[in-house]
Every structure is written in structure tokens, then in C-alpha cells.
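Researcher: I'm preparing a figure for a lab meeting and need a structural model of a single chain. I don't have an experimental structure, so a prediction will have to do for now. The sequence is pasted below. Please return the structure as C-alpha cells so I can convert it later.
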Amino acid sequence: MRKIIACWLLALVCGLSPLAGCGGSAANNSNAPVEASAEQTLSELDSLTAELLKKVESARDPVSGLADAQTLLDARRAALASKIAAVKKSERFQQDNELRRHALESEIDNVMRVQGLRTRYLNEAGNAEFRERLDRLINDYQELFRG
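Model: Understood. Here is the structure written out cell by cell.
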């Protein structure tokens, strides 16, 4: 699992590294909506992550919790993925190192929280249905950032 996380983090950092060299001017009023949108999108991502974890953790059994979490993710995935992609493509994101850093930290933190379900439910590792559902949830969640 550490190899997967390390590879994912490396790919993520490499994907953002071309943006790191972009020079940026001070924020201007035309970028204010994008900045607000970026913060709103990151907040929405944090909220979704918390709701997904709550669905799994509060369920009577983890398999049904994963099914509920997957349903929630499926309902919000397309809209949130397009918002994340729009933020990453924005001029403000490309020019603002602090915004990129904050977005990257949020992305890593949220992905790690969802992947943390693997260790939290180690006792379910022998359950094939649980593993399949958890793998799907994690993969679908990570797809939010690949757009």
C-alpha cells in the first residue's frame, strides 16, 4: 500500500511541477471569483470526504456502508470533478503558488483519509465483497483529481 501511495503522490507532484515555474502577478479583482470558487471547491471536497467516511463508519456493517458511500460519491462525482478540473485550469491556480499548495495538501489529505479505510477495516480484508467495494470507492474517489 505504501508503494501505491508513494507512486500516486509522485505522479501528483510531477503533474503539478510544470505549474511551479509559472510567474504570477499579485491577485487582481478579475481572479477573485476563481479564488472564491477554489476555496469553495476545496471545502466541498472536505465535506464530501467526511460524509463518505461517516457513511462507512456509521453503518451496521462495513459492506452496506461502502454501498451507501459509493452511492453518495456517484451522485456528486461528475459535478465535483468538473469543479476541480476548472480550478486547476484557471489562470489564478496557475499563477498562485499558495493556492496550488493548499489544493495539493487538501487533495493528499482527503485521499489519505479515504484510503485509511483499508487499515481501519483490516479485519474485513478476507471479505471479497468488502475489498471490491472499497477498491472501487477509492479508485472512483481518486478519479476526481484526474480530470
